[in-house]
Design a protein that fits this description.
By secondary structure, the chain is of the alpha/beta class. The chain has 9 helices and 10 strands.
Length: 261
Amino acid sequence: MFLWLTDLVRGEVSGLESAFAALTEVDVLHAKVQLARKHRCSKPHFGGVEVRLRTARHPLLLATGKPVVPIDLLIPAGKSGLIITGPNTGGKTAALKTLGLLCLMAQSGLLVPVAEESCLPLFHGIFADIGDAQSLEQSLSTFSAHVRNVTEILSDLVAPALVLFDEPGGGTDPVEGGALACGLLTYLKERGVHVAASTHLTPVKLFALADGAYQVAAVEFDLDTLTPHYRLRYDTVGQSLGLPMARRLGLPEEVCTAAEA
């Protein structure tokens, strides 16, 4: 009996495979529609060199069901990238991840949680060096892990591309790290690559202001209460507020006082 049934199924393998492929495609399309309806997604306009994502929302934060503060992510035509500054906990890294995820979603055929007037270039590749990739097993410090990641990114880079850096030049002397970050931004600018980066380093902030090729922005912060608004304020550079933030996060007053002395 089982052999007979197996033979019957075997004779329909081609049709079953086609039906499975069709049902899978329908299921994927249905999931895309559900996602778009649930989060009020839209299709950005493709083409050109401008990145304009209005009222962008991080897709993974949306999935939590909690309120998400929308942000505008802008790299105007004529600019090579976006440099985001300001205190920790203000949303700099979240902004970078929002930009990267939405670009990947859009180029994968998904509608994305942005306003309808949004637009994106078509990128050949999207790269990121975000987070701490240090490894005891591979004898990699924070700095060397970042340098290795950046080296791999540059070796695979083909314009047009988008590269995301979370605090480039970190993990070493701030002066040398700042110089390396500025050199990296210059290198990518000369190759027509879009860049979005966060930084606390003064040399990088000054470079972005003086160079003119990078759009600058700061995360909005209530300076009286030291609470973030999770929005970006453009054409300005933000303070890192390291000591005030340390106090707010509970570092002993004696330590903060000694740091200010």
